[in-house]
Amino acid sequence: MVGQWSYWTGIILMAQYLTGMAIRLLTGVCPWDCSNIPFSTDGVMRVDCGLFWFFVRRV
């Protein structure tokens, strides 16, 4: 069960990262700019949000 939650958390984070990078590539900016937040990846994804998605996926 935990493995499945981890799998879907990874899918959600990967989708967030790829979408953010695609939007940045097309427009030059990302609507959710996380560049000044700790634990952000390239300013488009926050790794610490993985915990949030892990528990949301559980519901």
Main attributes of the structure:
single chain; 59 residues; mainly alpha; two-stranded antiparallel sheet; 2 helices; 7% strand
Can you describe this structure in just a few lines?
The chain is mostly helical. It has two helices and two strands.
Overall description:
By secondary structure, this protein is mostly helical. The protein has one domain (2-58). It is built from two helices and two strands; from the N terminus they run αββα. It has helices spanning 2-27, 49-58; strands spanning 40-41, 45-46. A two-stranded antiparallel ribbon has the order 1-2. A hairpin with a 3-residue loop joins β1 (40-41) and β2 (45-46). α1 (2-27) packs across α2 (49-58). The longest helix has 26 residues, at 2-27.
Set down the secondary structure blueprint.
Blueprint: H1 2-27, E1 40-41, E2 45-46, H2 49-58
Antiparallel strand pairs: 1-2
Q: How many separate domains? A: 1
- What class would the helix/strand composition place it in? mainly alpha
Total of helices: 2
Q: Which descriptor suits the 3D outline?
A: elongated
What is the number of E strands?
Answer: 2
- Helix/strand order: HEEH
Question: Using only CA atoms, what is the Rg?
Answer: 12 Å
How is the largest sheet built, in terms of strand order?
Answer: 1-2
Helix share of residues?
A: 55-70%
